[in-house]
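Lab intake sheet, docking and co-folding queue.

SAMPLE TYPE: protein with bound small molecule
LIGAND NAME: coenzyme A
LIGAND FORMAT: SMILES
REQUESTED OUTPUT: full 3D complex as C-alpha coordinates
PRIORITY: normal
SUBMITTED BY: R.K., bench team

The fields below were copied directly from the construct record.
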Amino acid sequence: MMFEEMENRPFIPTEYVVRLAQTPWERAGYHALRRDVFCTEQHVFEYDDRDSIDETAIPIIAACCVAGMPDRIVGAVRIHEAEPGVWRGSRLAVHADHRKLGRIGAELIRMAVSTAHGLGAIRFLATVQEQNVLFFRRLHWKSLGTITLHDLPHHGMEADLSRYPAHGFDQTWLLRPQPRSRQVA
Ligand SMILES: CC(C)(COP(=O)(O)OP(=O)(O)OC[C@H]1O[C@@H](n2cnc3c(N)ncnc32)[C@H](O)[C@@H]1OP(=O)(O)O)[C@@H](O)C(=O)NCCC(=O)NCCS
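RESULT FIELD (auto-filled):
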Protein backbone atom coordinates (compact mmCIF):
# COMPACT_ATOMS: atom_id res chain seq x y z
CA MET A 1 0.00 0.00 0.00
CA MET A 2 1.25 3.48 -0.91
CA PHE A 3 2.06 5.81 1.99
CA GLU A 4 -0.47 8.33 0.64
CA GLU A 5 -3.26 5.74 0.69
CA MET A 6 -2.43 4.90 4.28
CA GLU A 7 -2.58 8.59 5.20
CA ASN A 8 -6.09 8.88 3.70
CA ARG A 9 -7.46 5.73 5.21
CA PRO A 10 -10.07 6.59 7.87
CA PHE A 11 -9.51 5.38 11.39
CA ILE A 12 -12.26 2.88 12.12
CA PRO A 13 -12.53 2.11 15.81
CA THR A 14 -13.25 -1.49 16.68
CA GLU A 15 -14.38 -1.06 20.28
CA TYR A 16 -17.34 0.86 21.62
CA VAL A 17 -18.82 1.01 25.08
CA VAL A 18 -22.45 1.89 25.82
CA ARG A 19 -23.01 3.20 29.34
CA LEU A 20 -25.01 5.48 31.59
CA ALA A 21 -23.34 8.91 31.33
CA GLN A 22 -22.00 9.77 34.78
CA THR A 23 -18.80 11.80 34.55
CA PRO A 24 -18.64 15.50 33.52
CA TRP A 25 -16.69 14.44 30.38
CA GLU A 26 -19.43 11.99 29.41
CA ARG A 27 -22.21 14.50 30.04
CA ALA A 28 -20.43 17.26 28.08
CA GLY A 29 -19.87 14.91 25.12
CA TYR A 30 -23.48 13.76 25.31
CA HIS A 31 -24.81 17.32 25.00
CA ALA A 32 -22.25 18.28 22.33
CA LEU A 33 -23.27 15.30 20.18
CA ARG A 34 -26.98 16.10 20.58
CA ARG A 35 -26.29 19.69 19.47
CA ASP A 36 -24.25 18.49 16.47
CA VAL A 37 -27.02 16.17 15.30
CA PHE A 38 -30.27 17.96 16.22
CA CYS A 39 -29.16 21.61 15.74
CA THR A 40 -26.29 21.69 13.20
CA GLU A 41 -27.22 18.65 11.07
CA GLN A 42 -31.00 18.30 11.26
CA HIS A 43 -31.97 21.92 12.17
CA VAL A 44 -34.74 20.59 14.43
CA PHE A 45 -33.61 23.15 17.05
CA GLU A 46 -31.70 26.36 16.45
CA TYR A 47 -28.94 26.56 19.10
CA ASP A 48 -29.72 24.14 21.90
CA ASP A 49 -31.93 21.05 22.06
CA ARG A 50 -32.12 20.88 25.88
CA ASP A 51 -35.56 20.95 27.49
CA SER A 52 -37.18 20.34 30.88
CA ILE A 53 -37.01 16.55 30.41
CA ASP A 54 -33.23 16.83 30.82
CA GLU A 55 -33.77 17.76 34.48
CA THR A 56 -34.87 14.19 35.26
CA ALA A 57 -33.82 12.05 32.27
CA ILE A 58 -31.08 9.42 32.51
CA PRO A 59 -28.44 10.12 29.83
CA ILE A 60 -26.84 7.18 28.00
CA ILE A 61 -23.78 7.42 25.74
CA ALA A 62 -21.78 5.34 23.30
CA ALA A 63 -18.06 6.06 23.20
CA CYS A 64 -15.45 4.67 20.86
CA CYS A 65 -12.47 3.31 22.69
CA VAL A 66 -8.74 3.53 22.09
CA ALA A 67 -6.63 0.97 23.94
CA GLY A 68 -9.72 -0.01 25.89
CA MET A 69 -10.41 3.51 27.18
CA PRO A 70 -13.41 5.66 26.11
CA ASP A 71 -11.96 8.25 23.71
CA ARG A 72 -14.82 10.09 22.06
CA ILE A 73 -18.59 10.27 22.57
CA VAL A 74 -20.25 9.12 19.35
CA GLY A 75 -23.75 8.11 20.48
CA ALA A 76 -26.47 9.42 22.79
CA VAL A 77 -30.00 8.72 24.00
CA ARG A 78 -31.97 9.63 27.12
CA ILE A 79 -34.77 7.90 29.03
CA HIS A 80 -37.28 9.19 31.55
CA GLU A 81 -40.40 8.01 33.37
CA ALA A 82 -43.20 10.11 31.86
CA GLU A 83 -45.93 8.64 34.10
CA PRO A 84 -45.84 5.75 36.59
CA GLY A 85 -44.61 2.66 34.70
CA VAL A 86 -44.51 4.45 31.35
CA TRP A 87 -40.99 5.32 30.21
CA ARG A 88 -39.96 7.24 27.12
CA GLY A 89 -36.76 7.41 25.09
CA SER A 90 -35.69 10.47 23.11
CA ARG A 91 -32.79 12.32 21.42
CA LEU A 92 -31.30 9.13 19.96
CA ALA A 93 -28.25 10.17 17.94
CA VAL A 94 -25.15 8.54 16.48
CA HIS A 95 -22.30 10.67 15.08
CA ALA A 96 -22.51 10.68 11.27
CA ASP A 97 -19.10 9.00 10.87
CA HIS A 98 -20.19 6.08 13.03
CA ARG A 99 -23.62 5.31 11.55
CA LYS A 100 -24.63 2.09 9.82
CA LEU A 101 -21.83 0.15 11.40
CA GLY A 102 -24.62 -2.23 12.23
CA ARG A 103 -24.78 -1.86 15.98
CA ILE A 104 -24.34 1.49 17.72
CA GLY A 105 -27.86 2.89 17.33
CA ALA A 106 -29.32 -0.54 18.02
CA GLU A 107 -27.20 -1.01 21.16
CA LEU A 108 -28.15 2.43 22.49
CA ILE A 109 -31.80 1.43 22.10
CA ARG A 110 -31.18 -1.90 23.79
CA MET A 111 -29.43 -0.19 26.74
CA ALA A 112 -32.20 2.42 26.97
CA VAL A 113 -35.12 -0.02 26.98
CA SER A 114 -33.50 -2.72 29.13
CA THR A 115 -32.43 -0.12 31.72
CA ALA A 116 -35.96 1.31 31.90
CA HIS A 117 -37.36 -2.25 32.11
CA GLY A 118 -35.02 -2.87 35.05
CA LEU A 119 -36.32 0.31 36.72
CA GLY A 120 -39.92 -0.93 36.50
CA ALA A 121 -41.14 0.13 33.05
CA ILE A 122 -44.29 -1.65 31.93
CA ARG A 123 -44.39 0.32 28.67
CA PHE A 124 -41.59 2.00 26.72
CA LEU A 125 -42.52 4.59 24.10
CA ALA A 126 -40.77 6.96 21.70
CA THR A 127 -41.69 9.47 19.06
CA VAL A 128 -39.73 8.41 16.00
CA GLN A 129 -38.88 10.42 12.88
CA GLU A 130 -40.56 8.90 9.85
CA GLN A 131 -37.31 7.93 8.10
CA ASN A 132 -36.35 5.81 11.12
CA VAL A 133 -39.61 3.85 11.53
CA LEU A 134 -38.27 0.84 9.61
CA PHE A 135 -35.12 0.84 11.77
CA PHE A 136 -37.26 0.68 14.93
CA ARG A 137 -39.62 -1.97 13.46
CA ARG A 138 -36.63 -4.19 12.84
CA LEU A 139 -35.72 -3.77 16.51
CA HIS A 140 -39.16 -5.05 17.67
CA TRP A 141 -41.06 -1.79 17.95
CA LYS A 142 -44.57 -1.22 16.62
CA SER A 143 -46.15 1.97 15.35
CA LEU A 144 -49.03 3.45 17.34
CA GLY A 145 -49.85 6.05 14.66
CA THR A 146 -48.53 9.20 13.00
CA ILE A 147 -48.04 12.60 14.61
CA THR A 148 -46.36 15.89 13.70
CA LEU A 149 -43.62 17.13 16.04
CA HIS A 150 -41.30 20.13 15.41
CA ASP A 151 -43.11 20.39 12.02
CA LEU A 152 -41.76 16.97 11.00
CA PRO A 153 -43.67 13.70 10.43
CA HIS A 154 -43.18 11.20 13.25
CA HIS A 155 -44.68 7.94 14.51
CA GLY A 156 -45.55 7.20 18.10
CA MET A 157 -43.88 3.81 18.68
CA GLU A 158 -43.76 1.19 21.45
CA ALA A 159 -41.03 -1.35 22.21
CA ASP A 160 -41.89 -5.03 22.72
CA LEU A 161 -40.50 -5.33 26.27
CA SER A 162 -40.33 -9.13 26.02
CA ARG A 163 -37.45 -8.55 23.57
CA TYR A 164 -35.59 -6.28 26.00
CA PRO A 165 -34.85 -8.19 29.23
CA ALA A 166 -34.64 -6.01 32.34
CA HIS A 167 -31.14 -5.30 33.53
CA GLY A 168 -29.41 -2.98 35.97
CA PHE A 169 -25.95 -2.78 34.42
CA ASP A 170 -24.47 0.70 34.08
CA GLN A 171 -22.40 -0.43 31.13
CA THR A 172 -22.91 -2.93 28.36
CA TRP A 173 -20.46 -4.90 26.30
CA LEU A 174 -17.75 -3.55 24.11
CA LEU A 175 -18.71 -3.90 20.48
CA ARG A 176 -16.71 -4.73 17.45
CA PRO A 177 -18.90 -3.61 14.56
CA GLN A 178 -17.90 -5.09 11.22
CA PRO A 179 -18.98 -2.73 8.42
CA ARG A 180 -19.90 -4.85 5.44
CA SER A 181 -19.42 -2.14 2.82
CA ARG A 182 -15.88 -1.15 3.83
CA GLN A 183 -12.87 -3.09 2.63
CA VAL A 184 -10.39 -4.25 5.15
CA ALA A 185 -6.92 -3.20 4.10
C1 LIG B 1 -31.09 6.65 13.51
C2 LIG B 1 -29.65 6.45 13.97
C3 LIG B 1 -29.56 6.67 15.47
C4 LIG B 1 -29.25 4.99 13.65
O1 LIG B 1 -27.97 4.73 14.20
P1 LIG B 1 -26.96 3.67 13.55
O2 LIG B 1 -25.83 3.51 14.50
O3 LIG B 1 -26.65 4.06 12.14
O4 LIG B 1 -27.83 2.36 13.51
P2 LIG B 1 -27.26 0.86 13.51
O5 LIG B 1 -25.93 0.82 12.83
O6 LIG B 1 -27.36 0.30 14.88
O7 LIG B 1 -28.34 0.16 12.60
C5 LIG B 1 -28.75 -1.19 12.78
C6 LIG B 1 -29.38 -1.65 11.50
O8 LIG B 1 -30.43 -0.76 11.07
C7 LIG B 1 -30.11 -0.19 9.81
N1 LIG B 1 -30.55 1.21 9.84
C8 LIG B 1 -29.93 2.25 10.44
N2 LIG B 1 -30.65 3.37 10.27
C9 LIG B 1 -31.75 3.01 9.54
C10 LIG B 1 -32.87 3.71 9.03
N3 LIG B 1 -33.04 5.02 9.25
N4 LIG B 1 -33.80 3.02 8.33
C11 LIG B 1 -33.67 1.69 8.12
N5 LIG B 1 -32.63 0.98 8.59
C12 LIG B 1 -31.68 1.63 9.28
C13 LIG B 1 -28.64 -0.34 9.68
O9 LIG B 1 -28.25 -0.38 8.30
C14 LIG B 1 -28.42 -1.68 10.34
O10 LIG B 1 -28.85 -2.71 9.51
P3 LIG B 1 -28.02 -4.05 9.39
O11 LIG B 1 -27.97 -4.62 10.78
O12 LIG B 1 -28.81 -4.86 8.43
O13 LIG B 1 -26.69 -3.59 8.89
C15 LIG B 1 -28.65 7.39 13.23
O14 LIG B 1 -28.83 7.24 11.84
C16 LIG B 1 -28.80 8.87 13.59
O15 LIG B 1 -28.23 9.35 14.56
N6 LIG B 1 -29.54 9.65 12.77
C17 LIG B 1 -29.67 11.10 12.96
C18 LIG B 1 -30.52 11.45 14.18
C19 LIG B 1 -31.85 10.75 14.18
O16 LIG B 1 -32.50 10.61 13.17
N7 LIG B 1 -32.23 10.30 15.39
C20 LIG B 1 -33.42 9.50 15.60
C21 LIG B 1 -34.61 10.36 15.88
S1 LIG B 1 -36.04 9.30 15.93
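REVIEWER NOTE: The beta strands are 16-20, 58-66, 69-83, 86-94, 123-129, 141-149, 152-159.
SIGN-OFF: pending second check by T.M.
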